[in-house]
């Protein structure tokens, strides 16, 4: 059972905007720990999309953006494209567990 | 460029142990922690622990504290994860991943994972 909760699935038509939430608590996101986001395609390794709440590694399109407020964070995908169909995970650190934690994951479907 | 290459798939019987390797190249091996993450079939990602390649010091998730060992060999730039007392629930894909520090200097609890191995399937049956 993860301490970071995400919606199991989201969908959108090409060109639309999708926002994935990541809800934590006072021992992780609310404690000030950074949130990072990953895209995971089947049979591949996860890919870092956003680090430090709102920073994109080089090569990641600016259609992907992250934000954080209070005990939650979110990943927005603007201008949805077919290749964005994947699983998305948030990740942070939890002081109560004394370890890193991933969100429950969100499957994004492009209609 | 930086990469992590893992050992191949393994099949073990319940109660046995498995040891997976993760060989780093293209960067200074001792400069970044290497983490291990696993994904059971149909489930999400789960963090297992990491090793500091410079000191060899590990940190484990509480769930695996008593049967997990993460070590490194600086002469070959390789990190190993060994999980003992295997049960069917340990059937999963295991990934190694390099620490990325979003802030400079790195802060405890601030690790992201920027370079990932290709994954190693472990089947316990």
Can you describe this structure?
The complex is a heterodimer of chains A (111) and B (125). Chain A contains no helices and 9 strands. With 111 residues, chain A is mainly beta. In chain A, a hairpin with a 4-residue loop joins strand 7 and strand 8. Chain A is globular. Chain A starts with 8 loop residues before the first strand and ends with a strand. Chain B is mainly β. Chain B is built from no helices and 11 strands. In chain B, the strands form 2 sheets. In chain B, strands 2, 4, 5, 6, 9, 10 and 11 form a 7-stranded mixed beta sheet that branches. A 4-stranded antiparallel beta sheet of chain B has the order 1-3-8-7, with no helix packed on it. Chain B is globular, with a radius of gyration of 14 Å. Classes of the chains: A mainly beta (111), B mainly beta (125). Chains A and B meet through strand 3, strand 7 and strand 8 of A and strand 5, strand 9 and strand 10 of B.
Question: What is the topology?
Answer:
The complex is a heterodimer of chains A (111) and B (125).
Chain A: E1 9-12, E2 18-23, E3 36-40, E4 47-50, E5 64-69, E6 72-77, E7 86-94, E8 99-102, E9 106-110
Parallel strand pairs in A: 1-9
Antiparallel strand pairs in A: 2-6, 3-4, 3-7, 5-6, 7-8, 7-9
Chain B: E1 3-6, E2 10-12, E3 18-25, E4 34-39, E5 45-51, E6 58-60, E7 68-73, E8 78-83, E9 92-101, E10 111-116, E11 120-124
Parallel strand pairs in B: 2-11
Antiparallel strand pairs in B: 1-3, 3-8, 4-5, 4-9, 5-6, 7-8, 9-10, 9-11
The count of DSSP E runs of length 2 or more, i.e. the number of strands of chain A, is 9
First CA to last CA of chain A: what distance? 29 Å
Order of helices and strands of chain B: EEEEEEEEEEE
Assembly state of the chains shown: heterodimer
Structural class of chain A: mainly beta
- Nearest-angstrom radius of gyration of chain A? 13 Å
Put simply, the count of helices of chain A is 0
Shape of chain B: globular
Short descriptors:
heterodimer, A: 111 residues, mainly beta, 6-stranded mixed β-sheet, 3-stranded antiparallel β-sheet, globular, B: 125 residues, 7-stranded mixed β-sheet, 4-stranded antiparallel β-sheet, 0% helix
């Amino acid at each position: 059972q993860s301490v970071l909760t995400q919606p199991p699935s989201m969908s959108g038509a090409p060109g639309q905007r999708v926002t994935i939430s990541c809800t934590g608590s006072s021992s992780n996101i609310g404690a000030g720990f950074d949130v990072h986001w990953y895209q995971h395609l089947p049979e591949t390794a996860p890919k870092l999309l956003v680090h430090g709440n709102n920073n994109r590694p080089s090569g990641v399109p600016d259609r992907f953006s992250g934000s954080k407020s209070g005990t939650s964070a979110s990943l927005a995908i603007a201008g949805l494209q077919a290749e964005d169909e994947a699983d998305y995970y948030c990740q942070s650190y939890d002081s109560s567990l004394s370890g890193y934690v991933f969100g429950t994951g969100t499957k994004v479907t492009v209609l | 460029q930086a990469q992590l290459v893992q050992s191949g798939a393994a099949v073990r019987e319940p109660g046995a142990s498995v040891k997976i390797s993760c060989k780093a190249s293209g960067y200074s091996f001792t400069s970044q922690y290497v983490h291990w993450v696993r994904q059971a079939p149909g489930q999400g990602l789960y963090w297992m622990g990491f090793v500091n390649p410079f000191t060899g010091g590990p940190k484990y998730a509480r769930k695996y504290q008593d049967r997990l060992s993460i070590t490194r060999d600086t002469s070959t730039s390789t990190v190993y994860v060994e999980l003992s007392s295997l049960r069917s629930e340990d059937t999963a894909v295991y990934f190694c991943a390099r620490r990325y520090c979003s802030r400079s200097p790195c802060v405890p609890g601030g690790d992201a994972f920027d370079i990932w191995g290709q994954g190693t399937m472990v089947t316990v049956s």
